[in-house]
Amino acid sequence: MRALILSDIHANLEALEAVLAAAPEHDAVWNLGDVVGYGANPNEVIEKVRSLNHLVVRGNHDRACCDPPSLEFFSPAAASAVRWTQHVLTPENLAWLQHLAPGPVSPEGSQSVCVHGSPHDEDEYLFTLEDAWESFHAVSARIIFFGHTHRQEAFATNQEEQFHLKPQYSFADEPDQCELSLRKGARYLFNPGSVGQPRDGDRRAAFALYDDSSELLTWFRVPYELEKAQEKILRAGLPDYLAERLAFGR
Hints:
The protein has 250 residues and is α/β, with parallel strands linked by helices.
């Protein structure tokens, strides 16, 4: 089984379209949440995600767009985007967001679980080996797919040692990929990166593929029409910063 792993699309239609066009053949799509927020095409992105008809875990921005009082921990720019998104969502797409399940969610037939932030909390960021250790103890699955940090990375443990892993790419502005072969007996926390708003210094859209038959996880990066996405953000009256940061992957 080959699963396409998406996360943190954040209403960036151009990035999502580029990812779907570049994605290798797959049998399932596992979406780790934050379908909306920040970007200017929440309805179009939701409709495209809904058409895939696969697993989607709720993200903190997805929840916030359904629950206006939940903006206490959002930055001013993020809160502004949430309020704008609430205003433009169609009733059908708002209802779809409201019915998303929080993680952990176990894909059928897999020994993995999907979460947004962590197995404990969709708002929790996993940045360090210490964070990862707590999450490994929260669930028994061999692989925990997580998003929220907008960074392509992985944490691994063989129960005695822990490892922090990051992809190494050959190109800066072209499509590229990096493979991670699973070690026998090891467990993994794996982040595919952000489709629509990367924050690891690489402005290309990020995604991943998991092939359980070959025990292989592959990170991907693909360029997209970034300037078009920026123009839409500015035209919508969203904070300029949300457009500017796309160019730097920060």
